[in-house]
């Protein structure tokens, strides 16, 4: 019994897992109709995969049938694999039953393109509409935008989804053309822009009239595959930065390419996915979004790639030693944020606590900063006298020798920040 | 130094703060009755929990503490840790004696300790919100039990009530032997005569379960397996996110 639904779930969850986004945060949907679920606040990881990625959504494809043949994708039409398709009811039932048992925060629904874009998008919309209207489901819904789908369908989708996303896949147009000649960045930009315009329009109207419904309240995101094509980190991060700015994206995801094909254009099966690189890109992304760094400060023509052995914040500090040491008791908050070993939370605590007392080493240690790392870049009330100025290579050597295992032997893919 | 003995309740703790002022005590060491070992040389003062006194102290504190700090105070109290009770007593006295804003002094040992413990309790609450797995029973109630490190049950109703407004549910703390029951209207505390054991995840006997319960927990287990990407396996990171002591909650880890 149940063999069919088990097999479908196996195939269609497996094919969906290469989309790394699993965020369920940033929406503001409340359970106001005594229905089920809410999607407020920061989101919850209900479990973690064995590689440490957050599982918060039921992430599946509606189908893995596809008329396209993108070389980097398991669902490409030339790939000899088992195909399956859910019915609308099956997706709704799975979502509701997982949600009611507190397994998930909601649904992440994507699909291969069968027949054509509108046909596919129309099915996706039918599912989310049924969830919202018939099941009164207020949990989180992340819906894929199918490139080429009509504006009407996108607009309808946006009335039910919390987040929508469409993937750039390769960081540059050249890279994309190499692996998926039928695809282009332009067909990604068009729906991104259309949905963004609608988000702004709905927000403006909502400011005037309270009853205006929500439209993609958690915004849009995209994914860039790293390491399938030869772009530098600079090209990747500059593309990400441009998309953050032009389309007000909530997130850009970086997905280290997992070899799944014998195609000569791609890394061979069995080669290691670039997990350290992926992690460094996320760290650099955080520096742009939360630490006030400009993309050119992190990566530029002189420094086009992130290093494997040090994180991008430390790397920046070592290249800019003239900006240090920073005096913890007097420096501007934004400068304290730039100190390697000090994160946002401890930087805030520092500027609050120093109103009461001058801060000493023992205070700093208790406030939760990575003192052994930070001490090379700061002055505090009882800093030891420093007789000579160290140069970058020496400091880097000291820091690395104290934290070897952490940096070299464990390729994290999620953020253990700075 | 004076020794104060209290009953471990929040009211008792706040009364103890009151008595510090009433009795003009200087340094006070606070212990709970259950941990107090009588000592012939050092007879302690027994705090008698008193609603009025407790209220007065709480009111005074609220004048100096914003909403968030009031909540932190409560969360830290739910840790049930003896050293945290001491920090809370010192913290309350410090806050009452200082002008408003003293909570920002993270260099003060009690401010820091209370905020850190509140953070820990908060994390445990958040973990329960994430790791609880309901099983649907034959009569349509969604049941889960937990053994949290701290007494976080009082922090849970809001979240689960908002989320599962249209289903009845029970969350039961096996360690502290009480639970929450939501009946579609309100959440109440309950005690079960015969609570199941934590060690078994699918703890309810099969005859109590909804006929489809097995299907969905099986589908969930299989779904969990298929989200893995073998080439990325990283057990160390996995265990950092889901410490082993929480695995007992997770049906997907049992397969
Ligand atoms: S269109 Fe999408 S699903 Fe189809 S092959 Fe390309 S990436 Fe894969």
From TrEMBL, chain A:
<dbReference type="InterPro" id="IPR013785">
    <property type="entry name" value="Aldolase_TIM"/>
</dbReference>
<dbReference type="GO" id="GO:0051536">
    <property type="term" value="F:iron-sulfur cluster binding"/>
</dbReference>
<dbReference type="InterPro" id="IPR051675">
    <property type="entry name" value="Endo/Exo/Phosphatase_dom_1"/>
</dbReference>
<keyword id="KW-0479">Metal-binding</keyword>
<dbReference type="GO" id="GO:0046872">
    <property type="term" value="F:metal ion binding"/>
</dbReference>
<dbReference type="InterPro" id="IPR058240">
    <property type="entry name" value="rSAM_sf"/>
</dbReference>
<dbReference type="InterPro" id="IPR023874">
    <property type="entry name" value="DNA_rSAM_put"/>
</dbReference>
<dbReference type="Pfam" id="PF04055">
    <property type="entry name" value="Radical_SAM"/>
</dbReference>
<keyword id="KW-0408">Iron</keyword>
<feature type="domain" description="Radical SAM core">
    <location>
        <begin position="50"/>
        <end position="294"/>
    </location>
</feature>
<keyword id="KW-0949">S-adenosyl-L-methionine</keyword>
<protein>
    <submittedName>
        <fullName>Putative DNA modification/repair radical SAM protein</fullName>
    </submittedName>
</protein>
<keyword id="KW-0411">Iron-sulfur</keyword>
<dbReference type="InterPro" id="IPR007197">
    <property type="entry name" value="rSAM"/>
</dbReference>
<dbReference type="InterPro" id="IPR010994">
    <property type="entry name" value="RuvA_2-like"/>
</dbReference>
<dbReference type="GO" id="GO:0003824">
    <property type="term" value="F:catalytic activity"/>
</dbReference>
UniProtKB/TrEMBL annotation, chain B:
<feature type="domain" description="DUF4130">
    <location>
        <begin position="83"/>
        <end position="252"/>
    </location>
</feature>
<dbReference type="InterPro" id="IPR025404">
    <property type="entry name" value="DUF4130"/>
</dbReference>
<dbReference type="InterPro" id="IPR023875">
    <property type="entry name" value="DNA_repair_put"/>
</dbReference>
<dbReference type="Pfam" id="PF13566">
    <property type="entry name" value="DUF4130"/>
</dbReference>
<protein>
    <submittedName>
        <fullName>Probable DNA metabolism protein</fullName>
    </submittedName>
</protein>
